[in-house]
Amino acid sequence: MENKLSVGHLSAIITIIIWGTTYISTKILLNGFSPIEILFFRFVIGIIALKMIYPYRLKFMDKQHELLFACAGLCGVTLYYLLENIALTFTLASNVGVISAIVPFFTAILIYLFLKNEPLRMNFFIGFIVALLGIFLISFNGSTNFQLNPVGDLLAVAATLIWAIYSVLTRKISSYGYNTIQATRRVFFYGILFMIPALFLFDFKLDLERFVQPVYLFNLLFLGLGASALCFVSWNFAIKKLGAIKTSIYIYLVPIITVITAMIVLHEPMTWMAALGILLTLTGLFISEAKINTKRSKVLVNGLTK
């Protein structure tokens, strides 16, 4: 049991390390691609890679399960990334960074309401508040001023809720025992399918000549093979082993990975506020992961969730 949990934690950490660096690749690709083009190409590359790795067809145990996969593809691939990309055109990236930290909270509440198979503990809520303060300091470390942008911020909140729904759907799908690669590939299929109408709305261009440029090709392969194919499989695997709540807590680490990557790749300085934010975020993560089973904690959590 301990080995399975360790593998689950390792899988979540690897996923977050890669996802935390995707902002750099996306920023580079935006010089030659639109957001919808990046989204479409990365998931097409991802689904091709998964098909090559595990070409066997997914056989459903129940025809109703197909609807779960379709909803997961719509939420986790199409809607989440579209809402996030559109939000970034209306509001600051730092705003989106802080708002995305609400994902574990939404996930915990939805899991409790709909699945009721992962208990909520007081340390989760304490850790959430501490980590949120840390992420706020990381995102607003003196280089930008906090500005409310209602449209963009509300879209970012909607994106986090959509990802939380995806986490719940993935948890439900994992309980059926499907192969993780096959399940992820099916989610990608529906994500791409629902994405097609958006291609006509956002001026999508195939323009394969852009792939000749090494910098574009490398970053698209990184997003397609790493951030999509590998990370969605490893994330879904982590949810299967740890549960949606414990896995979602690792999202707190994304801003930390992004800051460190920016220091290495973009040579951005580390401010004292960002350093304090990293410390608070890690503290919040450890608090959320801690095993606290006191009766008082259970009473307080029950009070919060009723």
Automatic annotation (TrEMBL):
Membrane topology term reads: Multi-pass membrane protein
Q: What is its main location?
A: membrane
What are the subcellular locations of this protein?
Cell membrane
Domain EamA stretches: 8-139, 152-287
Tell me the keywords, alphabetical order.
Cell membrane, Membrane, Transmembrane, Transmembrane helix
Cross-referenced Pfam families:
EamA
Q: Does the keyword Ligase apply?
A: no
Superkingdom, taxonomy of origin: Bacteria
* Transmembrane feature ranges: 7-26, 32-54, 66-83, 95-115, 122-140, 146-166, 187-204, 216-237, 249-266, 272-288
Q: Write out the coiled-coil annotation as residue ranges.
A: none
Tell me which family the UniProt entry assigns to this protein.
Answer: Belongs to the EamA transporter family.
Supply the PANTHER family for this chain.
Answer: INNER MEMBRANE TRANSPORTER, S-ADENOSYLMETHIONINE_S-ADENOSYLHOMOCYSTEINE TRANSPORTER
Its name, as the record gives it, is: Drug/metabolite transporter (DMT)-like permease
Species of origin: Metabacillus niabensis
